[in-house]
Structure formats: C-alpha cells, structure tokens
Design a protein that fits this description.
Elements: E1 2-5, E2 12-16, H1 23-28, E3 32-33, E4 40-43
Length: 54
C-alpha cells in the first residue's frame, strides 16, 4: 500500500493492489483507477476493508 496525491487532484489517497478479478468489488468501495499509474486508489477519508490493503 502506498499513500500520496492522486493525479493532480490534490486529495491524499491510498493506492491499492487490486487483481483484475476483484475490480468490481474495489469499485463498490469507491476505488478509482489511476489512468497514468494504472493502479487503483481511494481517498484517505474512505473506510476500506483491511483485506483490500494487504
């Protein structure tokens, strides 16, 4: 897991390692796909399940 700013949005984010097979579940937790880094992220303020950050 990494934290940092998203693509120019200025919002602190948590980057997630999400396998393709779990992308729909990640979306249900408001995760978004970063278009340049090609990784999933959520804002720090969102409560996410622990298993998503492992």
């Amino acid at each position: 897991m990494m934290t940092g700013n998203t693509y120019g949005e200025g919002i602190e984010s948590i980057y997630l390692a999400v396998p393709f097979s779990e992308k729909d579940e990640a979306k249900s937790f408001t995760a978004r796909r970063h278009p340049v880094l090609k990784t999933w992220y959520v804002p720090v303020s969102i409560e996410i399940p622990e298993w998503l950050t492992e």
